[in-house]
Structures are given as structure tokens and as C-alpha cells.
Amino acid sequence: xxxxxxxxxxxxxxxxxxxxxxxxxxxxxxxxxxxxxxxxxxxxxxxxxxxxxxxxxxxxxxxxxxxxxxxxxxxxxxxxxxxxxxxxxxxxxxxxxxxxxxxxxxxxxxxxxxxxxxxxxxxxxxxxxxxxxxxxxxxxxxxxxxxxxxxxxxxxxxxxxxxxxxxxxxxxxxxxxxxxxxxxxxxxxxxxxxxxxxxxxxxxxxxxxxxxxxxxxxxxxxxxxxxxxxxxxxxxxxxxxxxxxxxxxxxxxxxxxxxxxxxxxxxxxxxxxxxxxxxxxxxxxxxxxxxxxxxxxxxxxxxxxxxxxxxxxxxxxxxxxxxxxxxxxxxxxxxxxxxxxxxxxxxxxxxxxxxxxxxxxxxxxxxxxxxxxxxxxxxxxxxxxxxxxxxxxxxxxxxxxxxxxxxxxxxxxxxxxxxxxxxxxxxxxxxxxxxxxxxxxxxxxxxxxxxxxxxxxxxxxxxxxxxxxxxxxxxxxxxxxxx
Length: 483
Ligand SMILES: *Cc1c(COP(=O)(O)O)cnc(C)c1O
Fold this sequence. Notes:
CATH superfamily of the domain at 111-357: Type I PLP-dependent aspartate aminotransferase-like (Major domain)
Bound molecules: pyridoxal-5'-phosphate
Number of strands: 11
CATH topology of the domain at 111-357: Aspartate Aminotransferase, domain 2
Structural class: alpha/beta
Oligomer: single chain
């Protein structure tokens, strides 16, 4: 029976305790039995909405009925990112210590906009980001901040790059002026769409984005960047930002950061490195060759919510020029002025948002629970499984590997003899939809050189070799029996 809902104030403490335990039991069973759920939700569009009243309840309903609706209405519409068979996109998944940190963070409900509004939130963010920087062996002069997503981190990088260009955009803005050149940003066609979105948000415009050609492994060609910058300068453009990617979203290719960084240093252009997914590989010393030249980056983004088992959202932004970012955004209203001066930092000065969740608690719990070694082991295991799968696929004449496998994503396709490229695209799409419809596996696709390619990402905390073996068996069985 539902308890009587109080007319004022919060849920009574003992009721919270009871439901709190119930929620923890629910989470425990959910994660324990995660493999019993179909990884990709099988509902039709509108199905969930149709089961929920259009009108809000006038009287409180109590937790019991909400809880049963959670199971009956919401769960069927969940795609299970924590499922070991979730191998689509970049698998972002949560760990138990991360979940517990979210729980506590919601309870404290800290807004870490100023040091004063919760000193621990600011100082823990500083400490954990310094830990994180050391784990990745990134340069000592990097300052860090947590944003919600890599998209927002990159937008802030572009804002800093624009401020760095020194045309008094902060005071005079960008429009209606004849005294400023047009700004140009450089990336490749393989850069994440968030780079273009960030540029759009910063008033750069699509015309201000120039895509630099890539080599046969989808990596930016530094010589082509060099030429483009030279050509643009002679045509009156102002090159202001270059974005390189370590681990592109389509194929996880790695742009040559060292050579690109050298060009940016020489040309005095802001250099941003998007390592949203690939960045975590730097915890392994043997993978650090991908990050050669990272000290030349003015800013870097790495997402613990992608490959470090952190409940979404938590994106880490590093910069060696935080004063530029601050110049772009700092605006302290009278009611936000505090007396600590420069002995503390107020994170609200470094971005668009005022209110800030206590996200660093998640980093603190996760890094301490698993330890650096534990995190390394898990990343290493994913890399090893990916190499195993790549070898398996290479050995099967009916399939082909479509891109190098520097990290834990394998791009491949089914390629029986005698089919046209169009047929192959259709066939692979059909294969993907069939395996995804089984509810046992969820993979996604991309286009490389205009060919439809299947992408299998191994980065889930619960994904073991046996799951990837099963996935590979399922793909082969589907090809043999059902295509
Ligand atoms: C996933 C991804 C992003 C976007 O990440 P969000 O945190 O979802 O905004 C950006 N860049 C790369 C390379 C990515 O893989």
C-alpha cells in the first residue's frame, strides 16, 4: 500500500530509506541480470508515450505505483548501454562506483559554480583532474575542467581559439564589422560532427570550416594542412583553429598530432585535440606513441563517460592556456562576487554555464575503486580482444577488414564474391539489422570511402572475450542461414 503523501515538505526520511533500499536492490538485480534484456530496445515509435497519461497527476501517487510503471512501461523502451553485447558507437557504460557517486551527488545537490558554493566540489575537481592527467601521462602544464560532453568541451575550445585570435570579439562581436578577416577552422571529414556544431555555435559558419584531405588510413595529411593554411592566408582568411582527432568516430584513425602541432605552433593557431574516446588508451604506456606531440595541443578533450566506465555525463577538458578561456567567458555579476581572490578558482569563469554538478565525485570513486592498474587492465583487455577479432575476421574469406584497428573498434564488412558495391552496402545493412534484431548484440555502421562498413566497438565494462566470440558467431551464423 502506498503511504500517505505529505501535503508539504519532502518524502519522510524513513520512507526514503525503505525505497532507497528498494532502488539499490533494483539496480543490483538489473546489473546482475543485464544479459537477460534485449540489448537494443524493440519498441515501435510512440509506444512508450502511448502508455503514459497526457495529464500530470493532480495528487501525489506514491512510490510503489511509480516503481511498477518503471518496470512495465519504461524498461521495454530502454536500450541497454550496460549490456555486454552493446558494441555500437562507442559504448558508454557505467560502473557500480560511478553509480554510487551519482546517487550521493544527487543527494548533496551541490552547485559548484564558485569555490565558496562548495569548496570540496572545486578542490576535488582540481585533484581528480590532476590524477587523470597523470594517469594519461599528459603534460604538467595542463589545467583541467569538467564539462558535460565532448561536444561542449570542443565548443569551449573553439571559443578559446576565437578569443586567442585577438580581434576584440569579446567587446565588439563578430557581425557588422569591416575590420576583421573571416576565420577558418581546419579538421578532416572524419572529425566528429561536434567540431562543426561548435564552430557553428561560435559564429564561424559552415564556410569557415575547411576539411583537410586524409591518407589511406583516414589520417589528416599535415602537408595538405600546411598548403591549405598558406592558400587561405593569401586569400584573406584568418586561420584560427585546427582540430585533430585521436580515435575518430568512424574508424578510430589517429591524426598525426606531432606534425600538425608543429604547424600550429609555427603559425600561432590554436590546436585542439579531440581524444574523446581514444584518449583513455594513454593510460597504457605502450599506447602513448599515438599521443606523440600532445604537449603542442592548446586544448584536449577526453571523455571518461566513454571508455572509463563513468555514468554519462563527464567530459574532461584540458588546456595549457586557461587564461584565454577565462578571457572568453569570465563575467562576474555583483551577486556572484566573493572575497577569496586568486587563492581559489571559480569554475563558472571558464565556460557558458553557471550551475555545475558535482561530477568529480564520480572520478574520485571510480579511480579509487579500480585503481590505475585496474583501469589499465580493463582497457588492455579491450585492446587485446579487438586484435583477436580483427585476426578472426581477416582469416575468414567472406569478410574483410575495412580500416586499421589502433584501439578497440573493428571496422569490417561481409564481402561475398561477385557482388557490386551497391549490393554489398545493402547486404551489410541487412546483416546489421538482422543481428541487432536478435536482441543479443547491437552494432552500428559508418561509411568509409563511400562504402557501408560495420563497426564493432569493444569498450564495455562487462564485455568479455566470450561476448565478442558470441557476437562473431552470431554474425557468421546470420550470414550462413539468414542472408
Ligand atoms: C563521441 C565523440 C564525441 C562527442 O561526445 P559527446 O560527449 O557525446 O558530446 C566527440 N568526438 C569524438 C571523437 C567522439 O568519439
